[in-house]
Amino acid sequence: MDLLRQSLLSLAQLPPASSAPSSPSFELRETQTFPGSVPTRILLGRPADRDTPPTRLTATSPPARIAPSDFLSVDLDAQAMDESEKYDKYFHEIGCGYKKLVDYMYIEPAICQPTPAGLSLLVEDFVVRTNHDLRAVDQQKSDGPVPTMIARFKEFSTQAAGIRFDPLRPVGVILTHGQHHACPVLFMRKGQTNYVLIFDSTSGSMKKAYRKVGTFFPDCQVLLNDGTRQSDSQSCITDAYEILTRAFTVDDLIGKVEERIADECSASSSTAAASRVFRFSAPEVDNFRLFRMPEELCFTAQRTAFVTQTSKAKLQLPIRDRTGRLTTLKDMMRLKKTVAIGNQSEKWIGINSYLHEVSLEHRERIKQLVDQRAVDPGPVIDDGPR
Fold first, then answer.
1. Relative orientation angle of helices 236-247 and 116-130, to the nearest 10 degrees
2. pTM of the prediction?
3. 214 and 187 in contact (C-beta within 8 Å)?
4. How far apart are CA 290 and CA 263, in angstroms?
5. CB 235 within 8 A of CB 302
């Protein structure tokens, strides 16, 4: 009996089985970025512990469940969502969907993506400040499957029949479908011709399908920008707003677009064979053409190749930013988005960060508009230049 008691006491003093192998060490460090850039947080661990594919670390993951395989940056502001829930209806602070492996760690910039309600606030605010005709059209009516962009244009063409083509007052429309892909469209008139300009940020792989949109607007010249300028998966709504608000200010936009009409054979394509297939297998639509993006509208591009190769734009072109300050297209695009990990040298993460940074401005403006309406539910009043 004494021997049995001693055995039981020995077992009781042993450490729990789960703590036998020591857990791998890792820590959270804030990264240092350029002033005005999107803050990030990176999970650091030993390379020896990273023997499984990286998985997403969300802002809601309990700390106890963080695994060594979770190496993804998280927006610091997204970690502090307890500030107020009154803004949840108007924007989401999320990872942009673009991940870059830097020194064994995955970096994912954060973006503040407006919801349809938040976008409506921004659009109304812009209209009040500038008197331009900008509209946000959310096509989502249910939680069912998301239709293709071509099907969405077909549906919208009926509604667009009521848009008046005025040479002195173009109409900009941001087509959204909930939080899915957004597309900016500009309705303009020059001389005796009506134009429908489509600035889809991911049109590169859809050029052939987009030809059909010309049949939805038979009395117009339908022009689509050539090439894909978007690298992440969450910036299209911000891009659409930025493109259209800037397009209103470009002198003789139609003239510049007409000068940059792209021959189908010379339009961006991965191979010459693909270009030939695109040219000869697509149905003929006389009123549909591709154009290379004017330099004044290249500033949202996340892919530098879209600017230098597809659009053949000049990076040193003088251009005014959103505040009216004279700068260059290269500087405005934020070509050298870098991140410093600990004391290590800065690493370029491979994506131009203009849209990520300007989304922070959109977030703050949306907060102002929401707070203002909470006090005064009347019309939005501009509080001065931003």
1. 10
2. 0.73
3. no
4. 8
5. yes
